[in-house]
């Protein structure tokens, strides 16, 4: 069984830099803004104002000083399939999916990810984390010189009301708890906007380009930020889970 239904093919996608002037939090302020107390992610019904977040359709993503966003676009449908937020050598991928009313799907999804990673020669530890159970993965890779290597990644997930949010941390955030904290804060303060349309479980919730990027054109008038070498593609299970370079 595939991990997610109705996914756009990652073989037909490309990263697009958002390059928008997103609001930033003041030093010491929480990116949560005027949201509810306690740790998220949150449903749109729990948040009265958007606060310092950028509107990406199904996801309101918190922003921090220095945070760079890249959108994943399906070439055929031109639909946005995911977003990656990079900061100081670390990357957080985020995608939102439909889920049943009665139960969460992270336990099942986590098992499927672990099984697929193991089949590809990787190793996985299912451990307690900031958001509950998470996966610490070590994925076979190849260095630019052609030597075998291992690339770490953290798979995190959160079951919300009729939605599921998945994150993948790579780069420094996958191995350094201190480096992970800013992007963990971003994930914790995501707001998911689930529409009222009936959707099968695991159906990808639609994302959009940030408002300014839609108006000005993605990356218009500025140079695209350099893609971190450890940034993963948006469907790490499509060809057997791997984190690959995007060139």
Characterization of this structure:
By secondary structure, this protein is α+β, with helices and mostly antiparallel strands. The protein has a domain at 10-99 and 157-216. Helix content is 13%, strand content 32%. The chain has 3 helices and 12 strands. The chain has helices spanning 106-119, 177-188, 211-216, and strands at 13-17, 42-43, 53-55, 59-62, 68-74, 80-87, 90-98, 123-129, 132-142, 148-160, 163-171, 191-192. It is globular and about 50 Å long. The two termini are 30 Å apart. The model is unreliable at 1-37 and 212-247 (pLDDT under 50).
The largest beta-sheet arranges its strands as 1-5-6-7-11-10-9-8
What structural class do helix, strand and pairing data support?
alpha+beta
Shape: globular
Low-confidence stretches: 1-37, 212-247
Helix content: 10-25%
Main β-sheet, in a few words? 8 strands, antiparallel
Query: Could you give the order of the helices and strands?
Result: EEEEEEEHEEEEHEH
Report the portion of residues in β strands: 25-35%
Q: Report the C-alpha radius of gyration, rounded.
A: 17 Å
DSSP E strands, number = 12
User: In whole angstroms, how far apart are the ends?
Assistant: 30 Å
Count the DSSP helices: 3
Concise account of the structure shown:
With 247 residues, this protein is an alpha+beta fold. It has helices spanning 106-119, 177-188, 211-216; strands at 13-17, 42-43, 53-55, 59-62, 68-74, 80-87, 90-98, 123-129, 132-142, 148-160, 163-171, 191-192.
């Amino acid at each position: 069984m595939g991990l997610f239904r109705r996914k756009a093919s990652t073989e037909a996608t490309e990263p697009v830099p958002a390059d928008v002037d997103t609001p930033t939090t003041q030093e010491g302020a929480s990116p949560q803004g005027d949201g509810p107390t306690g740790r998220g992610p949150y449903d749109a019904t729990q948040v009265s104002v958007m606060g310092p977040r950028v509107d990406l359709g199904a996801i309101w993503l918190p922003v921090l000083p220095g945070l760079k966003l890249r959108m994943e676009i399906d070439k055929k449908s031109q639909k946005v399939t995911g977003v990656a937020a990079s900061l100081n050598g670390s990357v957080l991928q985020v995608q939102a999916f439909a889920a049943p009313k009665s139960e969460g799907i992270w336990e099942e999804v986590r098992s499927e990810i672990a099984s697929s990673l193991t089949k590809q020669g990787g190793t996985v530890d299912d451990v307690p984390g900031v958001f509950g159970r998470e996966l610490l993965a070590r994925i076979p890779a190849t260095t630019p010189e052609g030597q075998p290597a291992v690339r770490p990644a953290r798979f995190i997930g959160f079951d919300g009301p009729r939605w599921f949010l998945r994150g993948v941390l790579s780069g420094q955030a996958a191995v350094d708890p201190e480096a992970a904290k800013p992007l963990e804060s971003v994930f914790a303060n995501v707001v998911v906007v689930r529409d009222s349309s009936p959707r099968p479980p695991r159906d990808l919730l639609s994302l959009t380009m940030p408002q300014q990027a839609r108006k000005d054109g993605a990356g218009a008038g500025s140079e695209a930020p350099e893609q971190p070498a450890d940034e993963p593609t948006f469907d790490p299970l499509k060809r057997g889970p791997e984190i690959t370079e995007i060139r």
